[in-house]
Amino acid sequence: MQISTTVSDHPVDDARLAEIFANPGFGTYFTDHMLTVEWTPDAGWHAARIEPYAPLSIDPAAAVLHYAQEIFEGMKAYRHPDGSVWSFRPEANAARMARSAERLALPVLPEDEFVEYVDALVRADERWVPTSEGANEKSLYLRPFMFASETFLGVRPSQHVTFMVIASPVGSYFKGGVKPVTIWLTEQYSRAGRGGMGAAKTGGNYAASLVAQQEASAHGCDQVVFLDSTEQKYVEELGGMNLYFVHADGRIVTPATGTILEGITRASIITLAEKMGYTVEERKFSIDEWKDGVASGEITEIFACGTAAVVTPVGELRWDGGSLPSAPVGEVAMELRKQLVDIQYGRADDGHGWMHKIC
Ligand code: PLP
Ligand code: COI
Predict the structure, then answer these.
(1) pTM of the prediction?
(2) In which residue ranges of the chain is CATH 3.30.470.10 found?
(3) Domain spanning 181-344 has what CATH number?
(4) What is the pLDDT confidence band of residue 173, given thresholds at 50, 70 and 90?
(5) Strand locations in 73-138 (E)
(6) Distance, CA 222 to ligand 1 centroid (Å)?
(7) I want to staple 148 with a disulfide (CB 3.0 to 4.6 A). Which of 63, 177, 183, 311 is the partner?
(8) d(CA 145, CA 55)
(9) Are 258 and 282 in contact (CB under 8 A)?
(10) What CATH number was assigned to the domain covering residues 4-171?
(11) Which residues have any ligand 1 atom within 6 Å of their CB?
(12) Residues spanned by CATH 3.20.10.10 within the chain?
């Protein structure tokens, strides 16, 4: 695989980088380089290159701007105590991007090439991977994405596609670190429907979530939870995180509906929880089960997880005309969180072959 490299002649200096690392926020600052690969039906994937990070010049008739044929991934590079840099289950992101590509009629980027491209950008911008001090979990967030770059307004799969990787040093996704997030139950809006794109990581799903997220904010909530669009009965997920319900009898239930994004954190938490002796049920989980379970004490903890948000306790649930107090915020979420981040940051043995060394 050939990747041509043009090194930036204006990399951020060390003093500015230290300032950024001190307060990176989420998705605000970007590294010195970006990676681009092009696809056409005749040439396949070609013209892979790393170049200085810069705005794109895009034709106003590019298909993505009109028909949203776009997919993305979210993953992180972690610096370990010995200075080495690792990613977490990148082949799982590659596989999910391939599934998203199939749903959006985009060309599949072979999984080994996906991993190699992501690694190449991280190596080029290695000094942008922050060290993590104590509870202050910092990492380099990686955003691979693919979009319809053909200049054409006909509605059909694009005949020119661009794959890119950009990277952004990040701290915690929620301001204030790990504390319970308040959830708004939207009864008006759905995120995904049967036969739709709910299981794909595509921009349209996030666009669909924004008005509901605005509604959540207007009601003083941090995040919105979506129900299934057919019966308005089954819990799906938050705008950018999967959900877990811990029961007093040692069961942990996580929604599976066919219309949620199947998180890589979600899959990892299932493995870790089963190893800790919990029984994990992946199944439909109704909003009544949530409300009744908290009221009766049968549900002892609720938490959400995702790459950006890691593991975050869920607090109060509010809806139009009612609310439900937090399930007690608990040890299970915090223990799972610790096990996961200890593996990611190289503080615990990775007994699962999850970590991938980049440099
Ligand atoms: N659900 C949605 C809608 C998401 O955007 C994300 C974040 O990527 C997740 C779930 C969690 O997925 P992952 O754990 O792979 O980051
Ligand atoms: C992630 O966790 O990587 C996400 O994509 C969630 C959000 C930032 C869209």
Answers:
(1) 0.97
(2) 4-171
(3) 3.20.10.10
(4) confident
(5) 75-79, 85-88
(6) 16
(7) 63
(8) 15
(9) no
(10) 3.30.470.10
(11) 74, 237, 240-242, 261, 263-266, 306-307
(12) 181-344
